Amino acid sequence: MKHLFSILFLFIALASNAQEKKEILKPQIVEVSCGQCQFEMKGKGCDVAIRIDGKSYFADGIKIDDYGDAHAKDGFCEAVREAQVTGKIVNNRFQVTSFKLLPEKH
To answer: Which of the ends of the chain has fewer CB neighbours closer than 10 A, N or C?
Structure first.
């Protein structure tokens, strides 16, 4: 019985440490916007998020007003934009290494 609990504990510990870690080394085009306003993510206030392959992640290394007023018509809280990024996903957050906001498509 002790062994069963030990094995169960070990399995749970390993499963909880199996965090998604994806690294984007080559620049990739992603959607970027306010996670709360546009991507319907839970959080406090307004924070930049990116969407990769249909999944949204809050972004560390960029702030909501870094590319202008977030509440302007083309701001992150009002529009979904595209950006060219590199970085990695750690603990379900995207750690930005490089970020280039692309011009709006008309």
So the answer is: C
